[in-house]
Batch of 4 targets.
Target 1
Amino acid sequence: MKISLEWLADFTDLTEKDPQEIARRLTASVGEIDKTEVQGELLQNCCVGKILTLEKHPNADRLSVCTVQTNDKVKHVVCGGSNLRVGMFVAFAHVGARVRWHGTEMVTLEPAKIRGVQSEGMICAAEELDLASRFPQKSEKEIIDLPATDGDVGKGLREFLGLTDVIFHIDNHAITQRADLFSHIGVARELVALGLATWKKKAKAKPFAFTKNSVPFAFINDIKDLVPRYCACVIEIDTTGETPAWMKRRLEATGWRSVSLPVDITNYVAMEVGMPLHAFDAGDLRGDVHIRLSKKGESIVTLDEVKRDLPDGAIVLSDTEGIFDLLGVMGGLRSSTKATTKKIYLHAAAVDPASIRRTVIATGHRTDAATVYEKGVPRIVVEQGFLRAVELFLSLVPGARITSEMETWGENGSPRAFDLPLSRVTRTLGMHMPPEKAVTILQNLGCTAKVSKGKDPLLTITTPLWRLGDLKGEHDLVEEIARIAGYDSVEPVLPSASISPPPRDPRMNKIRDTLCELGYFEILPLSLVGPSLLKRAGLDPTEAFELTNPIGEETSLLHTSMLPSLLDHAQKNLALTDGSLRAFHWGQVFGKKIEEHAELAMLFSQQRPSSDLKNDPFLLIKRDVQDLLSRLGYDASVAASVEISPSAHPGRSGDIHIAAHHIGIVAAVHPNVTEAFEVPAAAFAVLHLTELLDLRPRSQVPRSIPLFPAVAYDDTIDVTSDVSAGDMLRKARGAHELLETVEVVDIYRGPKHAKDACNLTLRFTYRSPERTLTEEEVRKAHTEVLRTVTTKK
């Protein structure tokens, strides 16, 4: 958006004259100024000159020697212009001026001899003064032919061309929430609030009145919720007239192209007040006019002569001949004002911003009007902009007269009132804020504000109607005070909080490292799953929390267990391994029937079931879990499961206990689940990490290396499925004082074994801390231990 400093001077007297300082203050407190454009910056040392004499250069066929009347005597100049003539008015640059040499690099003019002839200054082409857009060249060496008179000779070129303005280019993204700033009046308010300007005394506008005649057609609003404020009337004119030079100059300076006076007035009001409006040729409207929503398949030929297909739900104006306006985006070609227009229907509307944004996206057509409309034009601005446009029509358009009543509906809204404790302002900003200063800031921004006296002064504030869109709470008012007072006035203070690192539990790192040592790979899937994945894992999707706005069905639920993601990983990657895959994953789990907690899941899967019990996934993962817990300092035991997980094999599932605490399960995967995931054989373990890490591990005290040798015996025992190996080990460990350790070293089931029978090989290790044992006493101790182990109770 472009803002003209000259235009701002219509409303304010600038107390700060430096444009760069104004830009700096606006950037710091309002919105980023991308560029400060000083019009005619290259014209500082240039004037209107008149060629008095013209002769051929004695030493160059393509050069001429001229005498030029300037504001500083007559100058002798060598020039290569192709369109030179005596009496021509030219753009003359004095020695010392900065010009763009042949439209490229910048140079400073100095006295020079060109082919032996002295030259004092330069007669300029448009490209050399950045005036190519105003004076397009017809040939390569054409110089500027100024439309001047003898009275203009010697005038400064900036003044002659009216290029005395300063244009601020404001980044639209920086003021997205401030619809009121898309206007010169809005920026003028900010200058006054920042102390950079004071308000001028407002000139009394020439009064005008609407007639009692109705608009010559029925105007029906079918969508009052989307167009809550509307103003319109009919104005008859003699001719469309000619746009004044001052208006053209301001429009061009702010990026608008002059089209015709009625159109230029609407564009002028859009830039001045922030109200995009439109002037229709009322003679082109047929029958009743409706504001309604478009239907798919409808189209409109817009002012740029492009036929545009409309989506469902675009806000349009239509009559009996069809749609003639895409409200808030662009008018239609059929109803546009023309040189023959005698009756104008002028309207202004507040439109739902979300509807405008959807229309812009659907049509791919963005306009300046749409950019303002989608920010939410304040309702009060509809009335202000409409009345300002009527005023300009009556004062500028020949024969303009109002011939109808003011068609209007909706209200301008009600101001919001707040009681803001000054202590909150001080506490939030971290700086002392005098109550008088806070009141002045708010009043300069258009609020009504007063302060009550007392220990904690209370600011009573009423917001202006043009700020209803963004001043919605006390926090917004605090921010307004802060930005106008200046963020740089807040004294920086280092944080006083402790920077000591929080306590860390190294056990989680130890768990991950241990599992990696045992051959498990850690995977990092999303915590989002789909209903189908949970169903394949035997879990109920209805027990999972649903996302309100999921990316897709496969990521629509929060996972209730880590197991489904592990099984999905095994299905995709098992075939890529050398026969087995071990993986683990940990994180938070959620569910309607479970309390949120941290969970660790492990999976051991194989490409084909093993007939060797030593390679059974269930027994191997059980061993790994117990090894993991032992390294962490926990003595864990496994007993038959009381409640069977839906994902677990009903006959091969065990609960993991540490003392009296149930902290997880280990189980073979249910056959239905292995079939669903195409994983032939698999077992899993799930640990309740939150509960596990709450348990205090045993102290692990290092032991010295034994001084005396050990004696080990391996014995194979026939067992059946009703015998617990864990019970056997527990009985053996307390059977004799010389028994140091006992462990399972092999398990075997051959073709001659019954289905529920196998051979279990145990290794018994004996040692004395005081002496070397004899074979006789070891055999005696071993016989006693075997008797204890094999005795059934």
Note: Residues 179 and 372 are 7 Å apart (CA to CA).
Target 2
Amino acid sequence: MNYADLFRVTLPETALEIAALVVLAVDLGLLRKAALNVRLATAVAMGVAGCGAGLWAIGIQAGSGLYVDGNLVLANGGTAAVAQCGILVLTALTLLLLFDSIFTKHIGEFVAVMLMAAAGGMLVAAARDLLVIFIGLELLSLGLYILTAFAKSSGKSAEAAMKYYLFGGMSAAFLLFGFSYLYGLSGSTNLYWVQGNIAEAGASPLFYVAWILVVAGLGFKVAAVPFHLWAPDTYEGAPAPAAAFIASVSKVASFALLLTVSGNLLMPGGPISGQTAVVERILDETYRTWQPLAMILLVAAAASMIVGNLAALAQSSVRRLLAYSAIAHAGYILLGIATQPHFSGQGSPFHFFMSTTGSWRVSSQAVLFYVLTYGLTTVGAFGVVAVVERATGSDRLDSFLGLRKRNPLLAGVLLVLFLSLAGIPPLVGFWAKFNLFAAVLGEHAGAVPFALVCLAIAMSAVSLYYYLQVVKRVYVMPARDDSPIKVHPVALAALLAIAAAVVSLGCFPTLLGRWIEGF
């Protein structure tokens, strides 16, 4: 490795870091005494430009990643590139929503921290080494804690940040313990060698402990049950743009990492040496030994779907409703990660592993499709909530009464986004669930995936009820206040663009699907 290779591979992250430094320099130097709206517009414009530069950098990247002593440390292309593009687009959209949610005078610092956190998320998505993964997660997490606490005049913001920080510290400890055990068992921090060395030596009881610790640490990042307790308070107390960032960018980075880790630790392979008969014996043994590890993810998936959807039924705050909805969606996505291709109903494990590389790729693409479209829809949902909250002073369900009369465009955006989250065709949320469930019920599916897909469909029906509770107040129930709700033109344009993308990708889902396949 040389520094030229490091710079080439980390060029998108470097673009964000440079943009963050420029935002700070301009806001605290040149525009120190300017009006707040001028500083806001300038900071957002530079932040969006930084995201655009990051997308350009991903487009011109060449090579197969960063290698240290022959081991892949940072990946280019594939899952990493898809997740990084999603992170940049979602970050830019979140920045545009700042125009209708001014909660601090320190706007330059807020934008800079958001860009740095996004850079951490991009690092997480590309990492293939335990140490790099942990560094990227900490860069992302520290930024999220700061963003959550940025509304200094709000007691809920401070409380949410403290809870988020404490839970995050514990999850980081679990994750680091798990990584240390994986290193001790394999003698390497590179995921490729961790996979191969443990597969060849056989899984020990300590490996099960390590996997449980890793699932606990990453389960916190994606708000999966039982590691979800921070999410409702954080989504409710954080400033709306910060909540949108946590619900979208953080999820994309975390699920991309979970795809990487589970794809390595749950699919024995790597640098296994020996004759074909020896390799077949190793794979047969590890398939039976490691299958319970996937079951841990399945239990978390089922619990997340049930707890998230049922708890959302009792919420009177739309922010908390979206938080429990996020927990349920994490369950759907975990289902796609855990079941393919670990639960074959037929054939030898050796022949199964040899024939399901394509099946794993299909499952990964379905997960990425789901995560990206969910992140896009959630950013828009929090944008609408921010506008209503600013106008009414509350995010309660009754705050949305008569929104169709107060702002028909905003009501239309909310209708599209919430129906998409519920999975109603022809919106993109329907195709996200359809693709994911179809991947789970693939050619090698057994009874366990079938039962869990049935559970997911039943829970999706439950989610339709609480999403319609919001829509009913917007379109059916009478308004208490007929005064119009004004939206900043830039924020409204961003919300309309998100709604248009949700409808367009729903009508033409292959556009996004083929783009993902192209990496």
Note: DSSP finds 21 helices and two strands in the chain.
Target 3
Amino acid sequence: MKQNGKLRRWLGLNLFSLICAGSVGVTEAQTTNFIVAQFDTDTAGTFIDQRWGTAVPRVTWDNTQNAATTLVSNNSNSGSAKWVVPWTTVQDQIMVTHALGATLNLNQFASVSFDIHFDSSSATDGAGHFGAVEIDWVPAADGWPSTPNAPQAFVDFASGNTNWIHATMPINAASISKLSAVIGMGFKIQQTRTGANLTGTTTFWIDNIILTGLVTTPIVGPPQIVQLNSAQYWQRLEFQITNVPAASNPFDPDVIRLDATFTLPSGSTIAVPAFWYQGYTRSLSGGNEYDAATSPPQWRLRFTPPQTGAYSVSLTIQTNHQPYGGPVVTNFVVPVTSPPARYGYVSVAPNHRYFQTGDGRGLPLIGENVAWPTGRGTYDYDAWFASMQTAHENFARIWMWPTSFGIEDAQPTLNNYSLAPAWQLDYVLQLAEQKGIYVQLTLDYHGMFAVTPDTFGGNNYWPVNPYNITNGGPCLNQNAFFTNSTAMTIYQKRLRYLVGRYGYSQNLLDWELFNEIDNDYAFLNSAAVAAWHGVMGAWLHTNDPFGHLVTTSLTYASNHPELWSLPQLNFVSEHLYNAASPATRLKTDVQTFIQTYGKPVMVGEYGTTYLGWDTAGDPYLRGFRQGIWGGALSGAVGTAMSWWWQNIDSRNDYSVYSALGTVLNRTGWGSGSWTNITFQNSQSLNAIGQRGPRESLLYLVASDATFPTNATTASLPMQQGRTVTLTQWPIGSYYAEWYDPATGSPAGYSLSITTNNILILPVPDFTVDLAGIVYPPPTFTTTPEDESGTFKFQFNSETGGQYRIEKSTDLSSWTPFLAITNTTGMLLLDDPSAATNSRSFFRAEHNR
């Protein structure tokens, strides 16, 4: 019975009553109530003591006290919130706040009410008063109670009345702009509100906190699909859905469900869910972001047209699993234009080692974690993404968790999501699109299941996790999150919301289900966790119409085959900290995962230490650089993704990424088939590398510079006369271009010839590390002439090679013919003059 009561509470708390569920064409404005809390179960712990005074209030759930109400349905004998306030100093005051679970416009409500009764032994002011209660509101713009409900801000309670009292306060929000977007309410009790100090302890109970008089927008006519921006090829298209019936919970598809089917010009279809949305405007004050709602919540629909031509959209609406009217249909046309420079959703490339976009172009990743902002919120990402773009970065890892972007991380957000952080994630994702940055979205983190803080402190959110049964959720313990069918159904509803809201984006690289969930394996069953990943991964692959990749992450190089062997997880993600010789360690880890699971590997987090940005232990960024380059040339999908993003930004240490991008982005890194290079006795050089279709990439580290060896030594000896030996090498001549990994500037150039399948490359003098590009000389290949007699030939070289091509008719006199950058490694050239020439010769010279 207790279990059923908690489940009932989870389904009914903080919800609008369902209205307008009848036929299309309702024209009358209707009123209903918003339930803040009825305390049918133990949810009193969601109150937060703001510590405005010295008294420390204790708020608990008391199932022996309950107030009946006629405003909404009421569960008899279900309980209330008990407050005990021990006054300690004169003129003291307390403030305790409670989240509304939604962003509300108070202009839509007439009053707020609650039921209260005092214990007869409660402190009085000596003048016949138990004291007074003031209601303050928590605007989304401030995040703390700053706007009292003026002019009637408090209610005075006479000490002779110990029965339940129904208190009602009018809401006068019209003159206070902040009250158009409110996320919580506060109860304030002051000793001196009625003139004298309260002495002793005040004890009272509160129940049935309800906002009354909500006026819903009248529905006039059938639902409509309103196009909000022009339709463009491979660009986001957004619609508003109007005249939709009001629902008790617009986030729950069992209550109300809007599904759109897009019919493409080719005749194929794509089904996309609509989502509940509220717009905000942001401002920056005192180093903090404040967001204010700009419109009432509404239904939205997002889509990215993958074809040009005429489309149709058919929208169906269900309320409580019943059709609401017939399909709503609209049409739009995407004009014929050239596609963007890069387009399409990211997938695993045919070689099962790298990623590619929908246009077939390889997508090697250069980037870092930017998991959460400071108090500047989205303004931090304005600065970070601008710097990252300048430094050739194209990847960012972002967390959804309680401090930022978390829409379902605290009671009462279970299947009743917070709209302000959802809008902030909108902003950041759209900014990433503008900056060419691909986002890994981490949907949950391990701390949501911990009870006590870990080494870092603060990772103990299970007591406030909305899935916790004590908060009205369905889970008796942490492991139940991964096994309870109700919990899994609720989570899939969240996935549906994320797909509808963010799935349109080509720059959404993947859904990462968890950050380091193995941190919780002391109290979780790893087999249950793996099974859950299989279920949720399968759900996403079935229901995400855009086909985003799916993965999760584990600590260090944790080899959990029950997870990584799941076909529902598209790639492996390892985290690496505290590694000696990070470049060679990364190569070993990555190659082991590739060979074991046949999947791409991402180094999702990297740091020379997990304790912080180690400027004392790595003052010259050698360990940092070896991790970034080691990840890139280990065979992983990109660089190792550094964790300490705020330090990188504050120290302006983006140059490591900039140098790597300068060298590698001119090559074919990440495109086609690449294999791991094997080395032989390299004269005390630590070497890793990848061999590609047209060139090979090397990264060398001097033995006395391998982190942490000599990491704090300012000046290291010069490595002179060194060579590096590559084994199992094709016969032929090979050029080697060398670069300084710290700056990206050229460091040397050489030519070598394979002997017995071994290539020995002389290495220019260096001190710490060196990057190299190795490739054979360019070649010309003739192709058949066309009907006009034009001579055509193919020029093959290393990817990105810059050449001057000259022409001669006698092999003696040469004239310039063409200057090229061979961006793809293969160019088809033609010479129209060949029709009038008896013969022509061509040669190519490297343009360095």
Note: The longest helix spans residues 485-502.
Target 4
Amino acid sequence: MDIGKLQRKEITEEMREAYLDYAMSVIVARALPNVRDGLKPVHRRILYAMHDMGLRHDAKYVKSARIVGNTLAYYHPHGDLAVYDALVRLAQPFSLRYPLIQGQGNFGSVDGDSPAAQRYTEARLTAIAEEMLADIEKDTVDFQQNYDATRQEPKVLPSRFPNLLLNGSVGIAVGMATNIPPHNLREVVGATRHLLHRPSATAQDLMEFIKGPDFPTGGIIYNAKAILETYATGRGAILCRGKTEVAERKKGGFDIVITEIPYEVNKSGLVSKIAELVEEKKIIGIRDIRDESDREGLRVVIELKSDAQPERVLNQIYKLTDLEKTFHINLLALVDGLQPQTLSLPAILVEYIKHRKVVIARRTKFDLEKTKERIHILEGLAKALAHIDGVIKTIRGSENRDAAKKNLIKKFELSERQAEAILAMRLESLARLEREKIIEELKEKKKLAKELAAILKDPKKVIAVIDKELDDVEKRFGDARRTKVEAAPLGAMSDEELIIEEEVIVTLSQGNYIKRVNPDSFRLQRRGGRGVIGFEAKADEDALRLVTFANTHDTLLLFSNFGRVFRIKTYEVPEGSRISRGKPIQSFMNVFSGEEIVAIVNFRENKAAVPHKYLLMATQRGIMKKTPLMEFKNIRRAGMRALLLKKGDMLRWASLSFGEDEVLLVSSMGQAIRFKENQIRSMGRASAGITAMRLKGSDTVVGMGVISRRAKAEGDKEQKALVVTKNGFGKLTSIKDYRLQNRGGTGIKTAKVQEKSGPIIAAIIVRNEEELIAASEKGQAIRVPLASLPTQGRATQGVRVMKLDAADSIIAATVV
């Protein structure tokens, strides 16, 4: 209901309409580029204001503040900072592939430095920017009134080249965004000329010319298939990397030299990020970082430590910094000045060609009209020169200029404009050579008019004109591609692929400190020696708990006494020296308070050999469980349940099996039982096990070994049982000495346990291993040949493996 000028309206409807108006204003007037000239309104207004000011590429530089002032005063009534920021970007050679403004002064840097204030910098158009504005005075594009209706401004620029692709564009509108990368001029012009003559060309056809984006900062892009999909659909992502090389130093060692970085990556920010990662020890092997960039180009030198692997360090830098970056592409632009559309590569060039056809047609029509006007004047002058005596007589006989004009029109059948031209003719035109010039110009103009008319009548001639102008632009401004295109990242390897395969020893302390060390750290000794320091205890109570032999490419499954399991790669375990403490295991997995890692199982995934099928687990009370190994494939940092435990019981051992093996369980008091694995049925993770060995009194299971039937079938070395006691004694016993029994029994004697030897602390099935490494509670470790241990019967004590201090004892053992 109307009340004067007021109108009743639902607030929801009013808000919807107001928001849509705002959204369209942002989309059309601010955020998105026009597909025809690749410019947003602010950029177009800056360039046109500079054109108005006569700031050609060879003109004198003018203060940026003056350009900003003119742009604000006449065309773009917004904040001066926004206009200056847009002007600066148009001048930055690291932002635009082909800058449209020449800047003099500080216009910022690839390090993210801010430009100087507009009162200090100067600017003018570049030569290629003039091609954007060429023929704008020939009615080639539509104009509109400026904000205060005092001037006219172009809706779009004529643009003799596809600027949207050459310089790209970035913009965030309401509910949509555009991100168009820059491209190489030669390639884009080649594709455009191809499409001119073959309108049905596909994105794949055009990729014969355009290999991919061409960033001003260079770098390397990958995957032609992903680029093709992006060009075909208008959306996609392209992997970009900086350009690097590994250089060997004169005095030995290597440097990683970065000479190009991905587009829109801040160089100083990249250097700072690498330094931060080195400080946090997330990247290991870097000694120093130097930024040696100068006017000649970008150069960042990363000096590596002598023992660092360049490929591994470089891979970590790619993984953790913007030296490798995914550029997300969205080819969104305004079509017909109003409609935002996501366009394919051919669609963008089709719209540009349509624009140029209109521009050429309007320019040709304008030139034809001007040519006809000139022909008309020249025809009048020629007629006057042919009857010069009569013309002079007529003029002399007239009372004034108006009368002379009327008399000329009447007597010689001239138009008013021709008469005006004759009256304005200078006496020098009466000279013979001048008369010939007029006649010659008339012939040329008639010939030109004929050519222009032919262009308007024949669409093929319009295409030929566009083709010729594109060729001219390419010859004048074309340059070599800066961004290299490769089929696949040559360095796109996983950390594991970059890790040298080597045997290591993984140790875990009572305080849950873990590390890996080279086995050579423990020199080979005779049995019975004191060993060497193998671990620097954090405190008196923090002694070694586990020692495991593994390969750096192995996967480690770590089992806790609570029946949980964690997963980690061997190379992820921090490397340490023989006497270093290592790092808290809580840094790698969520271990509960009071929870201890009691068993480590190592295996190789994707190994060529026949893989293990099952995981066998045993508790200290003689309960066993068998679970398919595949159920432990996806383990999160928080770990997962591996076994349900009865009250008072704890998980102690775990081992791999093929499903057809035999099991040997050994107790601390010297009992052992051997039975077939198939007597234990396979169960899921969330279940308890079954009784495998019955124990007497306070006896507990201290070792579990898997006897491989596969090894026996393959004729491998004889398998033996190695037992090691608390007080440093050990021996080997042939598996043949242990008869097969049914699970659930108390077993038979495996060793003579006395006060001198102490209880058994480890039992291992050995086959091809050659050496034993034993570690004591106080951190001593010894490495001895297995051949130095005698093969004895079951009811024997064994021989001394390691000489211990009075208060020390063997805590862990492994074989190499």
Note: Confidence is low (pLDDT under 50) at residues 533-541.
